[in-house]
Every structure is written in C-alpha cells, then in structure tokens.
Amino acid sequence: MNADTQQRILDAVDAGFEAQLATTSDFVAIPSTRGAEGPCQDMIGDLLRARGYEVDDWHIDVDDLKDLRGFGPIEHDFSKARTVVGTYRPQTNGGKSLILQGHCDVVPAGPLELWDTPPFSPVIKDGKMFGRGACDMKSGTIGALYALDAIKAAGFRPTARIHFQSVIEEESTGVGALSTLQRGYRADACFIPEPTGGKMVRSQVGVIWFRLRVKGHPTHVAFAGSGANAIMAAYHLIQALQKLEIEWNERAKADRHFKTLNHPINFNPGIIKGGDWASSVPAWCDVDCRIAVLPGWSIADHQKEIMACVAAAARDHRFLANNPPEVEWSGFLSEGYELTDAAAPEAAFGKAFNTVYGGEIQDLVFTALTDTRFYGLNHGIPSLCFGASGGEMHGFNEFVDLESLKKSTKAMALFIADWCGVEKV
Asked: Can you give the residue ranges of the Peptidase M20 dimerisation domain (predicted)?
C-alpha cells in the first residue's frame, strides 16, 4: 500500500469523524444491559444492511454451545439473545480474511444520581464522550465500521472476506463470541477494538465467576447468640478466599508476562444478598464472586482449589462445619490468553500503528479479559486487541477520549487495507 493510498484513507477517516461520533452517540444511548441487547443488535443490523453487507442475525441456542471450550453457564432469561454478523465478500480475492468484532452489552449503570450526566444520554465535553459503554466498547465497534467506511470513501474496496461481528455476553460469559465460532465463522485473523489505551494486549487473564450459597439458623435478634448469622458466615468465607487470592498472586510471580505486575489476580465479591428481616438473624446469604486466573492455568483445577478453600473455611466455622455452603458456577469459566503465532497480523498492524502514532506499539498485560481468547485458544486464529483511551469503565462517568478514538480508527483502517488488501473501485 503506497503513501497516497494511506493518505486518502486517513483523510477519509477525518472527513467521516463527525458522522462516526453521531452514530456512536446513538449506539451509546441504547441501554443494552444483559438481556436487553436487542435494540443494539437491531441498530447494527440496519447499519450493515445499509452498507450492503450480507447480514446473518440469529438467536443463540445455549444447547449448541454448552459443550464447547470456554462456555460459561447462563442463568438469566436468554430467550431474546442474538448475534449479528455482516459479511463483506470481495469481488477480487487478493488479501487475507479478517474478523472485526465488538460487543454491545454493557454493565449496569449503578445509582443514577452518582453520574454527572445520565449514563444513556451521551454527552461530548472537553474532548470526551461520556456514557455507559462509550469506552467499553461501543465507540470501538462503531470505529471499526467507520474504518471500513473510510476505505470505501477513499475510493477503494478490500480484496478479502471480512466478517463484522456484533456480540453479546462479553461482560458475563462470552457465549456471544463463542456462538460465532459455533456458527462456522472463521478468518485468517481477528481484531477486537477494546479500549486498550493505544497498546496491544499481549497477555490477559481468564475469569471464574462463582456464587457462595450460605445457610444460617434464624432466631429473633433478641436471642441472636442462639442462632447462626448467614451474612457473617459469608464474610468468614470471603476472608478465606482473600487468602487464596494472595496464594495465587504469589504463583503469578512465575509468569513471564504477569510477573511484571503487582497483584494481577483480583478476587472480588461483587454482589451480596441475604436475610429477610432486620430483626431476624439471617438464614441465608448469597455472594457472587469473581476471581482471575492466568494463561495456561487450568479452569477445572482452579475450580477445585476454590471448592477446597471454601470447604476448609467451613470446617473451621461453628455452624458451617455441620451446614456446609454450596458453590455454584455462575458465569465466566474462561481461560487466560496469550497472543502467540501472530507475526503476520502483528507486522501489518505495526506498520499501521507507526504511520498513525509513530514508533513501535507497546504491549499491554491485561488484568481483565476479552473475547480474543476464543479465536486463539479454540481455533488458532491470531486475535489482536487494540483500541482507544478512556476511563471509568464499569464505574461512574465512563468516557472515551475522542482524539484517541480518531487515531485508533485510522490505525484500524490502515490495518484492514494492508491485511485484506485493497483495489480501486
């Protein structure tokens, strides 16, 4: 790809950026929390059809996925769950095929009064777009779409097959991405524009979600000593799991990537529910938890360690010793992923990065996870993850930095043009 072609594509990104932001704002305005992603998938389907892509829009059947590597159990209503894939088929075959993927599901906004502006009424201020999902990762998804638009606006078309995939469940199980593989979608590489701060994810953790179901013995609070408080017993188990977290972080010091980080394994009791009455000793408590694992660590083995930790802590508790808690697997059962065998797509993206940003791309050792793992681990498809800068993901006043979004869109457009090849329209 010569310098003139590059410049025409870069100029086209600039020319289309206001439209890109308008589309991003419309996308962010849809409150696509878990189970409510349908309107976002409708929007993506409409955008793809308007651009002439071949659209596959299907309902996800959990029974088709439950035996696949990386499947995590679904507990909520999944009757409306869909995946949308738009396929571009070239007139001339001359490049390498590509999957471009983004997730449209977002985490809950939390108490609305703690946001400076409403989470689903996106606002642009001080060079940033604020809103739930603006950073993670709706701006990246729309950025990928407008990267393709820029190639066309510059007078070119790709010479390889491209699958543009909009998935759900990235924040809880990953079965949306898994469904695309079950459906048969494959390519020579995958690119996911998650917000990475302009760095390439080199290695990322896996995640296990589990629920502690703790029993107690209810009594009137006036006679609390004769009962057993399930909420307090749950805290006893949480403290034991915090010690397991310390052990796993010690183990992480031997990992070639994660040894550079302090405390890469994070345990989080994220949801707690328990009791029925303030003046009754609670008879039950459920705690939903998340803990990370590193690439190469066995999910099954670490599930056993969690079970053993909880069982040992229960044996050391007056009531739980005879009323052991239950452990349920409630979402992610996801392995960690290290980017390997990706020299060709990394080289192509490295050239695009150097043109837009200058210099060599920095690696990111990621203490969260992305959908890249399915493509690399399940099918050996090298899967790159790179995107814009932002902040407050999963928090209040989430935002994406717009200048970084423009740059990442430019880098994507040049990468697509190089990897897939282009020809004049």
From this structure: 204-316
Q: Is the peptide bond before 137 cis (omega within 30 degrees of 0)?
A: yes
What's the pLDDT band for 224 if we cut at 50, 70, 90?
Answer: confident
Q: How many whole angstroms separate alpha carbon 34 and alpha carbon 330? A: 14
Cβ(284)–Cβ(231) below 8 Å: no
CA angle (38, 132, 105) in 5-degree steps: 30
Distance CA(422)–CA(425), nearest Å, equals: 9
**Per-residue pLDDT tens digits for 39-82:** 999 999 999 999 999 999 999 999 999 999 999 999 999 999 99
Nearest residue to 267 (alpha-carbon basis) of 287, 238, 294: 238
CA distance 422 to 155: 10
Within 8 A by CB and 6+ apart from 292, the residues are 205, 206, 207, 208, 248, 264, 265, 266, 267, 336, 367, 369
Cα 137 to its chain centre, rounded Å, is: 8
Rg (CA), the chain: 23
Q: Is 423 helix (H, G, I), strand (E, B) or coil?
A: strand
Tokens of 256: 């070639």
Q: How far apart are CA 403 and CA 330, in angstroms?
A: 38
Q: What is the mean pLDDT of residues 316-320?
A: 96
